[in-house]
């Protein structure tokens, strides 16, 4: 009922324990708070909160238009809905190193377990598109150092994402990853790896957990969890999978509604009313009310709880 009772500190400790190289922990991307609960119910290890999804959900492209306040607020709403650790995409950190420091503190306040900060220029773009630009190592190292220094909980995970692979090649990406670990990164997100051998090479080169981004319609093939575990990956994200699936379903039912005049043909694919209520734990709210409003007024029927569910 209501929100998770697991504290952010406990979630961060859990995240640290989870991120073991070669375990390929799966973190699906939640597109709203309720989907975070579904992710937990299905037994996943953690929740990912995608910058692309947060932007697209607002009807915006993922080019650095969202603000820190929007991201921290929505990420906090999603994170508090589950007992799992949640990692959020902090894009380029929302500004200069001092802004990055503030970003980290705001994300800590919002209950996140960690975030990733990338080395793209503003305006940034999806890491799987062409035409990206990256800042120099010194600028990026300052971002990461500022982030690491700013956190108040030492377990808040600072992950450095490098987009160098698509710009300067694998060797340069590995060099940068190593330098970012030296600057204070707790984990590395090598963006737009071409194949498994590239993931393997990054995992071998750095002594911190490595993330694999299994986004659809991108530059990386969709490898299985087992394949990525064998390559040494610690965590796998599926950032836009749920939003794409949900929007795909919404588009299909809207087509049915428009063409058939009724949503009838789509009903079987829908989450039922009962299942929806189960996910929001409706019954617990009923029990809570029953515990509070348990007085009797002689001669007066003050009604029972709304049982018409
Ligand atoms: C991981 C990512 O940064 C995101 O915002 O989810 C995106 C995902 C995508 O656009 O498919 C990315 O740049 O890979
Ligand atoms: Mg992103």
TrEMBL record:
Respond yes or no to whether keyword Metal-binding is given for this record. yes
Instruction: Tell me the Gene Ontology biological-process terms attached to this UniProt entry.
Output: propionate catabolic process, 2-methylcitrate cycle
Q: Which Gene3D superfamilies match?
A: Phosphoenolpyruvate-binding domains
**Annotated SUPFAM superfamilies:** Phosphoenolpyruvate/pyruvate domain (SSF51621)
Q: Required co-factor? A: Mg(2+)
**Which NCBIfam families does UniProt cross-reference here?**
prpB
Q: Identify its protein family.
A: Belongs to the isocitrate lyase/PEP mutase superfamily. Methylisocitrate lyase family.
Name of this protein: Methylisocitrate lyase
